[in-house]
Design brief:
Jelly Rolls; mainly beta; nine-stranded mixed sheet; 1 helix
């Protein structure tokens, strides 16, 4: 069996008066504005066929060991911005001991020098990968593999991460991540 991680997503970050801060958050222009990183066997594609609506979404697929991600860093006018994402996260694993896989939408909170202060991880996981919330990360575990919407104001979400202070956050990196440590088994 193979590790399979699948992410389908459209992401938006809006400031006052509906100003969109994410460049190409609906993936209408493919991956323009997004950076890809990967190792191992993967594919990343944009299409309108992943959901019943006519909008574009991105699919990040990773099989076997390694990772695939697309990410974008956005400067924030303040933490009083609304993050919204529609995501379908799916992770499946093989039968080998210690095997894991996860699919996640991760918000990395950065200071002005691009140092990571903390993160929010919306994740569907299987196997031995078991992140826990602490002073620097908030884990939102997804058990349903259907489309789900997640919406919150960044400043309110940061209250769940006591080690990260609102006034230190200058940027957010939005990352779609798919990873696993397995091989066919």
């Amino acid at each position: 069996m193979r590790t399979i991680c699948l992410i389908l997503l459209s992401a938006f970050l809006t400031a006052g008066f509906g100003q969109q801060l994410v460049s190409n958050g609906g993936f209408e222009d493919g991956l323009d504005g997004w950076t890809q990183q990967n190792s191992g066997s993967f594919f990343i594609t944009c299409d309108t066929s992943f959901q019943t609506d006519p909008d574009y979404e991105v699919r990040v697929y990773k099989s076997l060991a390694g990772y695939a991600r697309v990410r974008q860093t956005v400067e924030l006018p303040s933490t009083l911005v609304r993050f919204s994402v529609s995501a379908k996260l799916r992770a499946a694993k093989g039968t080998n001991a210690g095997y894991y896989a996860y699919a996640a939408v991760v918000l990395y909170y950065l200071n002005a020098a691009d140092s990571v202060l903390g993160k929010t991880m919306i994740v569907q996981r299987v196997g031995s990968f078991n992140p826990v919330s602490d002073s620097f990360q908030h884990i939102i575990e997804v058990v349903n593999v259907d489309w789900q919407d997640h919406v919150f104001v960044l400043g309110d979400e940061l209250a769940s991460i006591p080690g990260v202070h609102n006034d230190s956050v200058a940027k957010v990196m939005i990352s779609l991540e798919s990873a696993g440590n397995g091989s066919s088994g």
